[in-house]
């Protein structure tokens, strides 16, 4: 887990809020104000992923299960070798969210390879798209 980037509210607010601390990531509505600037784990999983640089195994498996179910339900459509190679070299490889060593998108956690079977390659599954909308 990652610590919340706590911010202090201005002193000119009504009593009960002035000088209190809050996390803009996991409490944007300022419902859980803290009396002191204490360390605590941030509840915003997107922020935690961004800081950690990768998804946990549970999130990766959940994303894979959704993608696989969608692909199977559509009749297992696949992209051609040329399409897969183009997507991989023009969109995935240059992306800062692509881990080339592990061949994984760090946003969704899926394997994205230049070649390979659809079951092991998100790009090959014609039902799937880039989480950032690049392809």
Measured by DSSP, the beta-strand proportion falls in 5-15%
Question: Helix segment count?
Answer: 3
* Computed CA radius of gyration, to the nearest angstrom: 20 Å
Straight-line distance between termini: 31 Å
- The helicity comes to 25-40%
List the strand order in the largest sheet: 1-2
| Biggest sheet features | 2 strands, antiparallel
| General shape | elongated
How many domains comprise the coordinates? 2
Question: How many DSSP E strands?
Answer: 4
Question: Averaging pLDDT over every residue, what do you get?
Answer: 82
SSE order, as H and E? EEHHHEE
Summing up helix and strand content along with how strands pair, one would put the structural category as mainly alpha
Spans with pLDDT under 50 lasting ≥5 residues? 47-53
Write a structural description:
The radius of gyration is 20 Å and the shape is elongated. Helices cover 27% and strands 6% of the residues. By secondary structure, it is mainly alpha-helical. It folds into two domains: 52 residues, no CATH class; 67 residues, no CATH class.
Short description:
The protein has helices spanning 45-52, 57-73, 81-92, and strands at 7-8, 21-22, 98-99, 104-105.
Topology:
Layout: E1 7-8, E2 21-22, H1 45-52, H2 57-73, H3 81-92, E3 98-99, E4 104-105
Antiparallel strand pairs: 1-2, 3-4
Tags for this entry?
135 residues, mainly alpha, two-stranded antiparallel ribbon, 4 strands
């Amino acid at each position: 887990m990652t610590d919340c980037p706590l911010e202090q509210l201005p002193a000119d607010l009504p009593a009960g809020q002035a000088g209190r601390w809050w996390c803009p990531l996991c409490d944007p509505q300022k419902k859980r104000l803290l009396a002191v600037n204490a360390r605590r784990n941030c509840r915003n999983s997107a922020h935690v992923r961004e800081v950690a640089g990768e998804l946990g195994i549970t999130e990766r498996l959940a994303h894979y299960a959704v993608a696989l179910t969608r692909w199977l339900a559509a009749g297992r459509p696949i992209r051609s070798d040329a399409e897969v190679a183009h997507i991989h070299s023009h969109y995935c490889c240059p992306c800062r969210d692509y881990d080339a060593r592990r061949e994984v998108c760090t946003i969704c956690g899926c394997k994205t390879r230049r070649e390979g079977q659809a079951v092991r390659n998100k790009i090959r599954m014609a039902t799937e798209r880039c989480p950032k909308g690049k392809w």
